[in-house]
Amino acid sequence: MRAVQITRVGGPEVLGVVDVPEPEAGPGQEVYDVSIPGVDYADTHR
Whole-model pTM above 0.85? Predict the structure, then answer.
């Protein structure tokens, strides 16, 4: 699946689209399909 990851410290330019394995739910967990996530300015500074 495609995901957006922050690979280093910086502004929005550090956001990158990468391929990652499909997530699997563990015991007592669920996996949700998110089609439109919210990303705000603070998310780019973690």
Answer: no
